[in-house]
């Protein structure tokens, strides 16, 4: 069962016309990415330098993994505003295990992943079992994770200077060692592995079919005898585990767990999801589109910084892109 065929609409299987509309949206997004790359390269000769391209890819590795987590939730008809602070919380847990407790990486990293899975399950429980709207539940959890991160660290960063090999998780390059001409960071490789894994789940597993069905017609799924609440918790738990991967990548890149760094990342993640063509109403989306959206967000941020555009105007541009992407999704659904 392929990814397109697994998407179900309000009344059943998505029509060929709707699938073509989704493919057209991704084509437009990819065309926009190419235009941005060419435009920034013309505007600044420093943009297309190898070091700057690697910097863009490094930034995309974190935001892209977070966007994958957000995509899983949004396709299921929910929303998760806590992905950024959950990422930070998992990085802090990793710091406590690896630095403060001195545990080896084969224990510390799985510990951080388990923290993400458990935290996501808590959010899913509030939404599925207590019927708290996803926006409110995850907004509250966003503040909870932020507060816990600050409390655990006492407001101070945790550094991984004594954890040998930790920085290589994100900044090393296995591909570069094999092919020196392609110094692609490990973080980017992990991003694409996570994206392929998520795409496989969506297109080839029962969980993937239920994720699309939850976003398309939850009531029909419930009437079919499916335990909707259980699957919602599974979706949020899986998204939490993916957020933990993003936290490990970010901590590895900056070689520290910064307790106040995560808030705001959720906006870029959701923006990448929407730009990539995932419908905010649920039931429709692809990982390929999300990856294109994440690259667009990183290219815009990097290009504006290269051109010395003030940060406040960078935020304005990002917000405008989100509005345009949502409006495009609304027009597509009306058609």
What does this protein structure show overall?
The chain has 335 residues and is mainly α. It has one domain (52-334): Orthogonal Bundle (ABC transporter involved in vitamin B12 uptake, BtuC). It has 13 helices and 4 strands. The chain has helices at 16-43, 50-75, 83-100, 105-128, 134-153, 168-171, 174-178, 186-204, 206-223, 228-254, 265-275, 287-306, 311-334, and strands at 8-9, 12-13, 158-159, 256-257. A two-stranded antiparallel ribbon has the order 1-2. A two-stranded antiparallel sheet has the order 3-4.
Q: Pairing-aware structural class of the strands and helices?
A: mainly alpha
As a whole number of angstroms, the C-alpha radius of gyration is 20 Å
pLDDT < 50 stretches: 1-13
The CATH topology turns out to be: ABC transporter involved in vitamin B12 uptake, BtuC
Return the string of H and E elements: EEHHHHHEHHHHHEHHH
The residue fraction in helices comes out at over 70%
Q: Give the helix tally.
A: 13
Structure summary, number of beta strands: 4
The general outline is: globular
Instruction: Give the N-to-C terminal Cα separation.
Output: 26 Å
> What is the CATH domain class?
Mainly Alpha
Strand line-up across the major sheet: 1-2
How many structural domains are formed by the residues? 1
Q: Which strand-content bin applies to the residues?
A: under 5%
* CATH 2nd-level architecture: Orthogonal Bundle
**Overall pLDDT confidence:** 87
Largest sheet: 2 strands, antiparallel
